[in-house]
Amino acid sequence: MRSDHAARTIKAAALICIVCLVGACNPGTVSGPETRTGASVQAAASSAPAADLPATGQLSLALLNADELGPAFTQKPTASPSPSRPENGKDSRFKGCQPLARLLNADDEHPTYPGATATFASNGLATVFEALTAEPPDVLNAEYGQAKKALEACDSIVLVTAGQTIKFSLTPIRFGGPDSSAVRMDARHRGVLINGYIAIEQLSQSVALTFSFFQVGGGSSQLASAFYQRAADKARTALNLQPS
What is the pTM of this model? Predict the structure, then answer.
């Protein structure tokens, strides 16, 4: 997870969920999960030293599916937001908290190592994003540490998307193990509460999980925490991961 790849994954975790909830996500303009986890990524990974790393297909099978989230959720195309290639002709950028904004606004068009993502939505009221990334231990350790530090750096951040400005307050929260990092995000958009969570965890020496859950009109972390634990447990079991 190079710093730009870490940034792209965490940016997607926040931006995909938020943009879908505020109505700026057009399924006709985004690529499905097969694009992120398909031939282009496999080609990039094949040129990298990926010995002992899970393959892209293995990571894909280790992701949650809609049935595991419940009948209210359906799997959606997974976008790849980029500040240099804004969706729907409108830029989407984070501002304010410089360490986190710098991470979230970074761009990585060509991931080096295997990765897989999935996005789910529930009637416009909640969205879930999950990503698994596999990298050599030295790369993962360094870049996971950088991403963790940025995620914990500030108490607020602003998202400008589709001509709208949303200011989130940030509060540390714990979803995973002692080496994980998670932040709660709260905002009001047009009088409606938007509540969300971004969590990252190094599941093993070579695999990291990025997870995001956003909801409209509610502020409970119970469902987000339950889904996160389900995602982490499935990845550990499916990939036979040992603690880092």
Answer: 0.79
Non-local CB neighbours of 46 within 8 Å, separated by 6+ positions: none
Helix (H, G, I), strand (E, B) or coil at 84: coil
d(CA 97, CA 61): 35
Query: pLDDT digits over 90-116, tens only?
Result: 467 888 888 888 877 766 555 678 999
H-helix or E-strand spanning residue 213: strand 207-216
Question: Which segments of 91-206 are extended strands (E)?
Answer: 92-95, 115-122, 126-134, 156-161, 164-173, 181-189, 192-202
Rounded to whole angstroms, how far apart are CA atoms 116 and 33?
A: 8
Give residue 97's identity as a one-letter amino acid code: C
Q: DSSP string covering 21-73, please? A: HTT---GGGS--HHHHTSHHHHHHHHTS--TTSPPHHHHHHTS--HHHH-TT-
